[in-house]
Amino acid sequence: MKIQSTTVVWVSAIPLWLLIDFAQKNPKIVEEYYSGLLYPIFFDLHQTFLQWIPFSIGDLLYLALALFFFLKAIKKIPYWRVKPIQIIRDFGALMILLLWLFHLSWGFNYQRLPLNEQLKTSIKYSEQDLEYRLDQIIEKSNHWHQQLAPADSQAVTFPFSSKQINDIVVLHHPLGQESITPFSNVKKSIWSLPLSYMGYAGYLNPFTLESQVNAKMPVLSLITTSLHEMAHQLGYASEKEANFIAYLSAIHSDNPYVQFAGNTFAFRYLFSELYRLDADKANEKIKKLRPGILKNLREINNFWKQYDNPFEVVFDKTYDRYLKANGQKSGLQSYNEMVGLVINHHKKHH
User: Fold this and answer.
1) Residues of the chain whose pLDDT is less than 70?
2) 280 class by beta-carbon count within 10 Å (0-12 exposed, 13-18 middle, 19+ buried)
3) DSSP 212
4) Shortest CA distance to 345 belongs to which of 118, 134, 121, 173?
5) Are 204 and 189 in contact (CB under 8 A)?
6) Domain coordinates of the chain in residue numbers?
7) C-alpha–C-alpha distance, residues 170 and 78, integer Å
8) In 83-210, which ranges are continuous DSSP H helix?
9) Which residues contact 152 (CB under 8 A, 6 or more apart)?
10) Whole-angstrom Cα distance, residue 141 to residue 145?
11) Which residues pair with 213 in a beta bridge?
12) pTM listed for this prediction
């Protein structure tokens, strides 16, 4: 009896589910054998074959696959009309194959040991801790703004274009490891306009391991987004950890513009958390910020406002569910959880 390939793929969902379940329960094993041994091999292959290509192969691959499956679906419509249940079998088999590829190439990094455990630090903090660190970040932001802007009321103007971002950003590994050496090769997404309407600043292609950024954003955002996506390339799937590594990399830079970007990036998250706890205190803090910095931050807000649309809520909910399905229980709120990492990092090292 001939066994159909779709049947084999559907059966393979059982070991995949067991493997994911095992990974979720054993983060230390994932850290040692997947993130520490297997993933670096995939990353080295990426460096060898894709690093030198200036445009995003992943973006083109998505387009090619979409066209291929669309044409394939059109061709199979007569067959599906006769056997309608087959469309579920075919589509399900495709999803299972993609899940295998996703988890093996990058996705198991979601189950690795949390970065705060590797750093042996807490992620909890008090409101007093939050206020103190916010004051320090405001002071740093004001310092770099004073160095870079001719007056306190003027926004910082960046003397380089988005094309030159790769020349000035360097990823700082939080553990000082060199098993995976990140490189500054973040690519502009050819889908930057759709990304703007979707509300996305950038993304990592988990199949080609390419980092793409929304090239339409202001340079201030491009700097930290590039570092964030490079952190994903390094194998840190958690959004709060990628945010923290982006901040850490920025404040370790010897480029004053990157320093400014990193500190104002952290300001937005810490301010947001304090505002959630005590709006009056937060409003008092923001008065300490130089007016020119507010103009820089307003530029970012205005950029996203021009692309506001009713479908953005759908994209947010979809991505929120994706994050939760991959072990980030807070969903989109996990981005904000970098605050605990920032606060406790400075408490530990200062």
Assistant:
1) 1-3, 79-80, 82, 177-184
2) exposed
3) E
4) 121
5) no
6) 5-111, 115-349
7) 54
8) 85-105, 115-118, 127-148, 165-168, 192-198
9) 145, 146, 290, 291, 292
10) 6
11) 188, 202
12) 0.92
Residue-level pLDDT at 177: 63
* Other CB atoms within 10 A of residue 74 CB: 9
> How many angstroms separate the CA atoms of 334 and 17, rounded?
24
Q: Percentages helix, strand, coil for the chain, rounded to the nearest 5?
A: 70, 0, 30
Neighbour count for residue 157 (Cβ, 10 Å): 12
Per-residue confidence (pLDDT) for residue 2, from 0 to 100: 43
Angstrom distance (rounded) from CA 153 to CA 132:
25
* Total Cβ atoms within 10 A of residue 150: 10
pLDDT of residue 73: 77
Amino acid at 77: I
Cα dist from 128 to 135, 142, 152, 343, whole Å? 11, 21, 28, 11
Query: What own/partner pairs with CB < 8 Å and gap ≥ 24 does 156-165 have?
Result: 156/220, 156/257, 156/260, 156/292, 156/293, 156/296, 158/219, 158/220, 158/257, 159/257, 160/219, 160/257, 161/219, 162/188, 162/215, 162/219, 162/222, 165/213, 165/219, 165/222, 165/223, 165/226
Determine the pLDDT at residue 1.
36
CA dist., res. 332 & res. 308, Å (int): 18
**Which residue has 């500190």 as its token pair?**
263
Distance CA 87, CA 5 (A): 14
Residue 344 tokens read as 């406790």
What beta strand segments (E) does the chain contain?
187-188, 202-204, 211-213
Q: Biggest alpha carbon distance in the chain?
A: 80
What crossing angle do the helices spanning 256-277 and 127-148 adopt, rounded to 10°? 150
Distance CA 64, CA 30 (A): 33
DSSP 18: H
Q: Which of 226, 240, 217 is nearest to 301 (CA)?
A: 217
Main-chain dihedrals φ then ψ at residue 176, nearest 5 degrees: 70, 20
User: What per-residue confidence (pLDDT) applies to 270?
Assistant: 96
- pLDDT value for 184: 58
Helix (H, G, I), strand (E, B) or coil at 105: helix
